[in-house]
Amino acid sequence: MGCGVAKILTAVAPDTEDRVRRILSGHDLLFVSHLGDAQAALEQHDIELIFVGARFDESRMFDLLEYIRAHAELKKIPIMAAMIAPTKMSKETVAGLAHATKIFGASVFINLNDFSDDETQNARIRIIVDALLLPAN
To answer: pLDDT tens digit string along 62-74?
Structure first.
């Protein structure tokens, strides 16, 4: 981990895949849009990072986080939870969502609405991804 191409499970709503592809370009992305597919991917692939969107599988992000938390062998995989699509949620609600994802085991929560969808801002987000892929000390 931390160098080269990483295998990243991207559990996101299909309408957000393009943005996620731009952010995570250069990595081996495994897109899933249903909880069962995400669980199967975690069993069948050597995943190095999980990127999960808040609207994954009709807002089942927390079901995926709970599944990961219940399997000791998966808890070592860093998780980046994200609000990807525009939302009408208040800043306080998004902050509460961020806090809850961390309680459920996410390494970091990011609101992509705080970043323009351009190369400069996507590169800033990739810095966080790269940090998550560094080997644990």
So the answer is: 999 999 999 999 9
